[in-house]
Amino acid sequence: MIKIEVNNQSIEAKKGETILTALKRAGIKVPTLCHMENLAPTGACRMCVVQVEGRPGLIPSCAYPVENGMKIQTHSNRVLRARKTIVELLLADHPDDCLYCVRNGNCELQRLAEEFQVQQRRYTGKKCDYKVDMSSPAIVRDPAKCILCGRCVRMCEEVQGVSCIDFVGRGSKTIVGTAFDQGLNVSSCVNCGQCIKVCPTGALSEKSQVKQVLAALRDPEKIVVVQHAPSVSVTLAEEFGMKPGVDICGIMVSALRRMGFDKVFDTAFTADLTIMEEASELVHRIQTGGKLPMMTSCSPGWVNFVEKFYPDLIDNISSCKSPQQMMGAVIKSYFAQREGIDPTNIYSVSIMPCTAKKFEAQRPEMNNKNVFDVDAVLTTRELARMIRSHGLDINSLSSDLADSPFGQRSSAGKLFGATGGVMEAALRTAYHLLTGEELKDLTLKPLRGLKGVKHMQVSIAGLDLKVAVVSGLGNARKLLEEIRSGRENLHFIEVMTCPGGCIDGGGQPLGTDLQAVRKRMQALYKIDRDDHLQCSHHNKEVQRLYEEFLGEPLSEKSHHLLHTHYTQRKVSVNRN
Amino acid sequence: MSHSDEITAVLKEHPQARRDSLIPILQQIQDRTGFISPQAVQMVSDELSLPTSKIYGVATFYNQFRFQPLGKFHVQVCRGTACHVKGSAAVLDMLIRELNIKPDETTRDGLFSLEIVACIGACGLAPVISVNGEFHGGVTPDNIKKILDSYRAQAQKDQSQNDAQEDKAK
Ligand code: SF4
Ligand code: SF4
Ligand code: SF4
Ligand code: FES
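Output (structure tokens, whole complex):
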């Protein structure tokens, strides 16, 4: 520990840490823009400058290490003036669009303008005439609102290993864009939405489908059904100002009913169904010498990533559709049949933590006789907006249960929301399939927690099963490189596109606060701990679905409805 | 030689190329083919294992690269001091409007490309533009259309000659 002096008060700092980190611990807030937790500082925006005695210029606190005895002023007039000027310059070519902006009330630039009391335009820059990029089914880019902080570029490259966007041009003409500034849809973008989560402004947002959903709800002909993904119930509360880690599943269900959805189903039900199919597929692959290691298929950004960057490994991906798509498929087949509804009259909505799910839902493989499994996908953020616009008070709604026949779920299905959860659920069931018995300790500790890469070995019926769990595509890339160059000792790999899994998906509350993500994870673990139904194969409604409709896992009907295939995707930079 | 053969030829000259060869490779590609095409970026990306976005980002950082083929007629506008004083800004504006392209772009029909250059050493003629090396001095916004039209006419003549020849060949 060393001592530094901040605003004439002595505080302690750790050797080697940045000034910013020390200030944060001491509860002194310094605004930042380009800074990203856990990544190396770039010192690009200079929003975080402080005054250090004995230094002529102001110093970016995010990039400078503390030194013993340093004397720092964080809010002197000089510092405040410098920061205000930065904000004013950023606003010089910014569209005055706040009232019509998706980030109105939730924008870092807006907040800084307010904080520094910017009340007149001191600089006027040339407004840019960039077109909004609406080409992607998941992500909307509005370069006019971009302040070039670079956070999306670094997220896409350093965390996700995709690198489909970068700084283009120089000087005042610089923008963030794809190669040849083409639409995101023809770039290597996998729609993960992690860039949205770090963007301080409205330059990046999800392609919203709220309008279409509202139209369907108003259409008297339509039966509108909705499913909600396992992680949404433990994050939605944050959108309403509650602290992270509160599970409001029942309240969310009743909010959905109040807004007019005819049936509310739980995607964790089809997570259980996925486990039945996927665990059976794994056992089948092992017993018949099929392609190993098998890789999970429930995360559409990841599937897209393999199709684009590792087409040689496509056969390693499980053929199971994701829980979202399985739910869509059984709604428009089994459920429609049972209720005597024409599937074309069903409008199927899913609430997802994810932007890539929007892409997945419109994949041409994901339909049955030209009826799409899922018609619209809303993110957690979109659901929150919808709830607010319906004037529903989250605090006074009572709890409600999901509907039969897809309302029951095991807590294993719920675990799908966090990295390692699919693997844990799958192993619980694979053990049962191979031995007829239950795992003694259902909690598989090595698979838990926020680490980006996890390994485990389990012995089942004389077989040493080696599994790996990765989250974040950058981590996945490293593992795939190992496999490409001959690593052979793995049987089963779970990959989630987003670091930490769906609880920090691209459709979740904005920001990347690790502390919050950890709380969400603990909320899921608590649900599992408190539940009696902890294994997918014990889900009674899943069993009934097999008895009445599907037959057994991997049956012909299952294959037709619940499985899919993948194709290499050439990333094109060619103009058409 | 096809476009991709030209690029392959350049890449062959840089065996085991790494990131630091990026600029020289792009320069050579531009020298041989006149511009950096999407296909070129893709091929360089495969060769160097660099994302296409990164290559495009780096290439656009330098003013020397262009991303469209030169037009049949390459128009260079001098923005040197003498030309500036004599009103080259208005000339450039007019060209941008008349051709409906920005500097470093090429018209859709491939006829014209536009480039801003520093002094081309013909200050006596200021303001001056050069079309495929042919100088036009004392240009005004008003006579630009005439100059361009003369090239359009020439293109049409060439085209009909070509057509006639092709017809004969048949
Ligand atoms: S990005 Fe922020 S500052 Fe810009 S228009 Fe939207 S809300 Fe306003
Ligand atoms: S959605 Fe993901 S892959 Fe696409 S640009 Fe954003 S971070 Fe990159
Ligand atoms: S799009 Fe957003 S995150 Fe990316 S550079 Fe612009 S402002 Fe920053
Ligand atoms: S936050 Fe420190 S320079 Fe941008």
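Residues A 32-35, 43-48, 60, 62 surround FE2/S2 (inorganic) cluster (ligand 4) (CB under 6 Å).
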